[in-house]
Structures are given as structure tokens and as C-alpha cells.
Amino acid sequence: MTVDTDKTTGPADTPPAGPEAIKAIPVRHYGRYVSAVLAIAILGGVVYAFSQGKINWGAIPDYFFNDRILSGVGKTLLLTVLSMVIGILGGIMLAVMRLSKNPVTSAIAWFYIWFFRGTPVLVQLIVWFNLGLVFEYINLGPFYKDEWSDFMTPFLTALLGLGLNEAAYMAEICRAGLLAVDEGQTEAAHALGMSHSKTLRRIVIPQAMRVIVPPTGNEVINMLKTTSLVSVVQYSELLRVAQDIGQTSGAPAEMLFLAAAWYLLLTSIFSVGQYYLERYYARGATRQLAPTPLQKIRANLLSLGREKGGLA
Amino acid sequence: MTKKLSKSDTPVKGSGEPMVKAEGVHKSYGLVEVLKGIDLEVKSGEVFCLIGPSGSGKSTFLRCINHLEKINAGRLYVDGELVGYRQKGDKLYELKDSEVSLKRRDIGMVFQRFNLFPHMTAAENVVEAPVQVRGVSKSQARERAMQLLERVGLADKAGSYPAQLSGGQQQRVAIARALAMDPKLMLFDEPTSALDPELVGDVLDVMRDLAESGMTMVVVTHEMGFAREVGDSLVFMDGGVVVESGNPREVLTNPQHERTQAFLSKVL
To answer: In this complex, is the C-beta atom of B70 within 8 Å of any C-beta atom belonging to chain A?
Structure first.
């Protein structure tokens, strides 16, 4: 990448005593200026409309770092991370089961995915919440015994509901990743005497990660937003807290905007993390790793300093 | 590349039990019969070359030897033991996956498409199996890996990923990877077919060196020069059967069967 940018901005470089570099007038892209002006005008109009609306914008910064909001953010993050952990571990397990030669495990995995992908997650959450209708007590012999309603806290309901649902989606992503690894890899590992499970753990899964990570990043971002559904089972995550504050402080719409801003902020941070994770798993797959944004900025600044053509 | 394999019990060529013995080996994929009764013997310490047109079943036979493919009929023995099965009385019992893996430890394989692990460096590729399968300590395996990489002339590439190596370099790493398990038998499945002509020589040099150290090798190849120079025995296969076999120098210069003559006239 860095090599490429250097080449396109090349003409200003002093050519090493060879043929004279071409100095041509670049193509003018007038369409770009027109579309940029149009886009800015539309954006400006929308922003103006919102600023004139009956919304007390001042309330948002007042509450942005409110203690209750922050605890809601913390709970949203905790729920996102834990349900993704359940989802990813469950997904890998289901994908391996689904691809296994054993017809029973493969059928179980198929059924699980069919059920959990086939019903809305909101319905699943409500069912988990009301499972006390079916199971009055939970009794794990000598280890644990309690009434279901005490055992199934809003947090656990939310975690199981989101995590188990996510596992079904992750299973399909992982399956695609495992299938994307060349069969020769498995053969080579088997020929060296590695067992099925070692081959999976050491050879296939690390390579499948390159295919699995990008859509998983998507799933994380999706999950972060889906946690807002959990307000229906009384778990006080970000949206629930924002709504509660909205009702008591008389600024319900403002608090929704505040929640939206927090979600946007968090998803942006996750996107950056995803970029670096993808870069890590790309090692060995590409000859040269893509530059990090910092490296990119540094390279651009350097080339700008050298010449004027950087704006074109 | 001058370092020799430190095998104390290098057997004299042609002595004792054959390393590989095939008796009427059949293999079919569905209705297509790929191997139609293969009988042959590979002696300990010899370089055994398999030649023949594409689709003649030579690669399939090679893959049967380490049970990457299951045979449908006949018997296949490696070092006196049945491949893939255990015989008790007159009944055959299929081996468990773990038992098959145990036997594969002693059989090295080199693939046409290298199949190096792309997420590991050259050295990590070589270290992987001894540590994970044999339980060798990491430092010991690392030391041995460096020796092997030096032997194939790639000590300076230990830290490179496969994508940063040329085809010939990748194949030499693949040979080092197989040797790291101290196999008693090496299988080569067209090891130079995916290489640029100018890179073939380096790989053949390594194989020649290996043959001189007394390794038993079964080589599926289109390199007639290698077969003539290094081979101890040669088999020409066509249509899933052995058409002709014997000393490579004799078979290649004076083929008896007309199928062999026709094939060699096109290849040589």
C-alpha cells in the first residue's frame, strides 16, 4: 500500500537518472466537486432542521456522564462481551459438530441452529424470562437448589437469551470459515500424525479465523445494539436507564439521542479493534501487512510535505 | 546440504522385510475403479519410483500407503504391519483414528502443492509435529529444525512465512517438516510438478541427498532423469495396474511393453 501511494504521487520525485518522468495535466473530476457540494447542502439542511426542532439539546451533555448512564453503559458492554463469548465458543462447537462425521452430533447441531435462528431473539428472551412456568425449581443435587425465579435473574436471562441465539449465527460463520481452509492442510497435518482435534486446534481453526473475524466483528457490533432489546426483561442496560431518566427528568427524546450517541461511540471503538484483529490474523496470508492507520497518516504526511499534488 | 541423516540403523538395501508390500490392492471412488489390483514390494532403503500418465492411479496408491485413502480390496503392509486394519484370526478390524495417527508418525509425506501451514514460519512448520505429536521439548525441536533447514539449504529463511518463499523453497521446507518426525519411509507425491523448471533442481538435490543417506523413498514423479539416476526400482502404471517394473535404467532405456514405450516416447 505504501509503495502504491508513493508511486501514484511519484512524478514530483526526482527520477533516478533514467527516462524523463511524464508530466501531464491530470484528469479533472468536476463531478466530485458537484456531488460534494450537494451532499454538504443536504447534510446542512438536516442538521438545521434538527437544531430548530423542539429538542432540548442542552440536556444531552448534562447527562452524558451521569452515573446511572455510565453504569448502564458498563452493563451493556458486559452483556455484549459475555454473550459474544458464549456465542463464539458455542458457535465453534456447533460448527465442528455440524461438520463432524458422527450423524448424531451433526443432527443435534442442525436442529439447534434451525431453532435458534428460526425464532426472533425478542421472543427467546421473553421465553427465558418466563421459563419459571415450566420449571418451578432448579435442583442440581447437592450443589445448588433454588426457586427458578430467584435463579433466573434479569442478567442471566439476558445473557442466556442473547448468547444462545448468537451461537446459532456464529455457528454458520465458523462453518464457512472451517470450510474455507484448504483440504490439503488437513491432509498434511494428518500425514504428520496429528489427531483430528489437534489438526483442528493447531492448523485449521487459526487459518479459519481470517475468514471468521470480519463477520464476527459485525456480529459484535450487532450484539452491542441488540442488547437494547434486553430492556424487556428488566435488565437496566443503557437504553433502559436512558428511558428511565427520560421519564423522570421530562426529556424522553433527548435521552434517546443520548443513548444513540453512546451506541455510536462504542461501535466506533469496536470497529477500530476489529481492524487490528483482522490485521493480526492476516499474517502469513499476505506478503506485507496492511499499514495501521497511524502508519498510513504518517506516510501521507510525509508525501504531502514533499509535494503539492496530495489534494487531487 | 552435505549433512547426512543420523540414522544408526540404516538397513542394507534389499535386506529383510520389505518396507511396503502391496497384494492385489484395489481402490474405487463410487463406480470408478482407480486401482485394479496392485502388487509390488518396496525394499528397505531403496528409492522406488512410480511413473505413468495422469489418472493412472499412482498418486492414489501413494496416498493409500499412509491411509489417506482407504483401500477396498487386497492387502497393504508397511514395515510388516497391515495399513488401516488389524487382523485377528481371519477377521479384519478397522483401526481407530488414533491408531492410524500413531502409524502415520513414521511415514513422511511431501505433497505436490507443498501444503505448508501458511500461518506459521518455516521453522514453526518444522517444529510443529515433533512438539505436538511426539512431545519433544520446544528447544530441542527448534534446534533440530534449524539443522534440517540448514540441510535443505534454507537456514536463513527460518523466520519467513510460506507466502514469502518461492515454490522450490516451500517444497524444501516441506521436506524438512516431514524429516523432523524421523520417518522410516518418505512418500513424495509429484514433489516438483508445481515448480518452475529452474527451481526443480534444488528440490531434486535435497531428495538425492536424502536417498544417499539410506532413506526408503517412494516417489511419484515425472522427472525421468531423477528416476534414472537415483531410483533403485521403477514401476510404470497405467489405468490402475502395474504395466512394467524393474531397474529404472533398464526400463527407461529399453521398455518392453508397448504402453511403456508409447508413454516414454512422449515424455523423454
So the answer is: no
Contact yes or no for A9/A309 (Cβ under 8 A): yes
Q: Which amino acid is at B48?
A: F
Q: How many DSSP H helices and E strands does chain A contain?
A: 14, 2
The CATH superfamily of A67-246+255-283 is MetI-like (1.10.3720.10)
Q: Shortest CA distance to A175 belongs to which of A165, A163, A167?
A: A167
For chain A of 312 residues, list the mean pLDDT of each consecutive stretch of 10: 44 63 89 95 94 86 90 94 95 93 95 95 90 79 78 87 95 95 96 94 92 90 93 88 90 91 94 85 66 74 53 41
Contact of B162 with chain A, judged by CB distance below 8 Å, is answered with: yes
Chain length of chain A: 312
Strands B216-220 and B47-51: parallel
B237: three-class secondary structure by DSSP = strand
- Residue whose C-alpha is closest to residue A181's, from A214, A209, A215, A217: A209
The residue extents of the domains of chain A are 67-246+255-283
Q: How far is CA B263 from CA B33, B51, B137, in A?
A: 21, 10, 49
Q: Is B105 helix (H, G, I), strand (E, B) or coil?
A: coil
Cα separation, B248 vs B266, in Å, equals 17
**Contact with chain A for residue B61, Cβ under 8 A:** no
